[in-house]
Structures are given as structure tokens and as C-alpha cells.
Amino acid sequence: MKITRLLSLTFVIILITSCLPKESSTIVKVTNTLDIERTNETVVLSKSELKLDSLTHIGIKDLETETFQVTQLVDNDGDGVMDNILFQPKVNANSENTYQIVTISDSERPQAEDLCYSRFVPERTDDYAWENNRVAFRMYGPAAQKMIEDNVPGGTLSSGVDAWLKRVEYPIINKWYKKDLETDGSYHVDTGEGLDNFHVGSSRGVGGVAVKKDSIYYVSKNYKKWKTITTGPIRTSFYLEVEDWDAAGSLIKESKIISLDLGSNLSKFEVSIEGANQLSAGLTLHEKDGVVTGNNDNGWLSYWQPHGDSELGTAIVAPKNTFNGFETYDVETKDLSNAYAHLAVENNKVIYYAGFGWKKSGQFKNQQEWEAYLNNFSKQINNPLKVTITVLN
After folding, report:
1. pTM of the complete model beyond 0.70
2. Which one, of 200, 194, 197, 199, lies nearest residue 175 by Cα?
3. pLDDT tens per residue, range 314-366
4. Strand 250-261 to 266-274 pairing
5. Rounded-to-integer distance, Cα 51 and Cα 158, Å
6. d(CA 203, CA 219)
7. CA-to-CA distance for 359 and 362, rounded, in angstroms?
8. Where are the domains of the chain?
9. Alpha carbon distance 196, 163 (integer Å)
10. Domain 117-362 class?
11. Is residue 266 within 8 Å of 316, Cβ to Cβ?
12. Looking at the domain 23-109+384-391, which fold is it?
């Protein structure tokens, strides 16, 4: 019996080991071709690229420092199987880092707080809110829309993007909602962490979309469906879908995946759209006391404005080959004045980034620092880190 048990145990060990990759089987090289250091950019490695059956016990080791990287696994399609592994390498200007795909135990895996977070918020009508260590946002759902249509107080009819101005690195979404709904406090008052004093209304807020026909901008109503894809130390992402909507006789079908990575002030919007060959992403002009600037060569639009007791910059950034210019749309109707970036639709897809920088957070001192950030961000998305995977037999 003892021999049988020993043989059985040996067989199990061999079987488990054979299912795991060899320590030297896969090498990943990450190359930075720019003359700036690259940090807080996410590298995505798929299970198929790595030629692995499972990512569950996988780690990424820096071969120079011999340290394991913080990673995050993502199940893109919700089937319970992890499809991608994410990490954020730090790569010096004009240089290359080399990493090794290895098996790793739970005790060896670096721990990091889940600073990239999002969720559906049924207790506050039906917001969807998201954040990272620098910024936070929310959008509005069908219950909030119906309240407006039924003349019930407290609703919101808008497909604009709200900005929550945080000035701490730790998560605030759950704390602020609880404060507003369960205590005498309010997230509209800054008690040291920041506040929500950003008015959206029917405007585009920070990156809401529109379709322009002749001289008029048409927009959807609130989102009708949502699905959280991932949260974690590196990225949060989720899916939103709106009811089909009309733009001067054109039926528009729209859905989007929104993601926000650690260290970024800008959310990524991957929009699927039918019925238009150009989409416009907007920034509300609020009291029209700010400055609209843009850079067609680098593909960005910005609005820097006085805001409360501080200043605020909002922006749209898109790949240069899809950025078709920008304009200031100034009208008398409340909330309809926006600065718009015009973006080409390619194969029914549009990708752009939208977000903000709040002076009071300490992240940016002035408009010049904000626009320098946008220029660097543009360089990075137009010259992504080059990833080379070598799988050794």
C-alpha cells in the first residue's frame, strides 16, 4: 500500500509539473522607442500569444532585477477562463527590458491594492462609477432617465460623463456614496479627499459623444445595459450599451468598453458605432470662462477653466490618424455648449481617451503642465511599447 501511494503521489506531481511552463520557455521583450521614460502603461499578454493553457499560476519576472512584477488576470468574455495577463513595466528612454514567464506560488506573487475599481451603483438610482489612484468618473443609467421622463425628482437624463475630483490615491467611490446616502455628509463637500462639484446636465461632461449633422449635435440618452469586465491593481474595465438613437434621420447603434489604468488621468473609450462615419467627443464649457486649446498634429483637445477655488483641465486625446480636428460649439441653451473633437469611424470603431487634471489634487500646477501631459500621452499612444514574445521549445 505504501508503494502504491508513493507511486500515485509521484504520478500526480509529474502530471501537475507537465501542465506548467518551463522556467525558461517564454521571454518577453518590451522596447521603448521614445526619448522619455515609460511608466503606467499597461502591457497585455494573451494566453494564446504565450501558448499556455492556463494563466492561473503564471508570473512575470524582470530578468535584470530578478523581481516579480505586479500582474492582473482578465477574463474578457466572462466564461470563467482568464484570457489576458496585464503588467506595467518601467522602461527607460530608448531602452529595452526583458522578462521571463514563470510559474509562481501565491506566496511569491507581489501583492498590490486594487486601486482600479468600478461598479454599478443601484443604491444611487443606477449610476456606473469608476476610478483609479488619480481620477474618478460616473455615468447614468435607465432608472435615472425614467425619473426625469416621469417628473420624479432626483433623476438625470444624460449620456455625458461626470468627473469626481479626488485628491487622494486610495479608492473613494464606495466611501463617498455611503457618506452621501447614509450620513449627514455629502460628496459635494470637500473634507480632504476631494468632491463632486462638476456639473454635467445634458452636456457631454468629460468625453460624452455626439453625432453632428449639418450644424446640430445629436446625442443618445442614458446607458441601458452594463457589465463589469475587470477590476484590480492595474485596470478596471466595463461595457455600456445605449438604446438606438436618431441623428437627423440616421439610426445610430452605440456601445462601448471603457477602461481606466493605474496612473492615468484619462479613461480609454472603445466605441462600437453604426450609422455615422464620424463621431464627436465633447468637453462641457460650463460657464464659458475657460480656454479651449488643441493640437491637430498630436491629436488632442483641452479645456482649462477656473473651477470652484481651484482650476481644472479636461481633455480628449485620440490616435493622430483618426483625429479630424476640433471646434468650440457655443450656444445659448444651457449645457449644450461643448468643445468637440471630431474622430473618424473606422470599421464601425472609434478609440479615444478622455479625462481631467485638477489643480487642487497637486497633480498639475497649471495649464502648461496639463498640456505637456497631453503631448506626452499622445506620443505614447501613437508609439506604443513594442512587445516581442519568444516561445522556446
Report:
1. yes
2. 194
3. 999 999 999 999 999 999 999 999 999 999 999 999 999 999 999 999 999 99
4. antiparallel
5. 44
6. 10
7. 6
8. 23-109+384-391, 117-362
9. 7
10. mainly beta
11. no
12. Immunoglobulin-like (2.60.40)
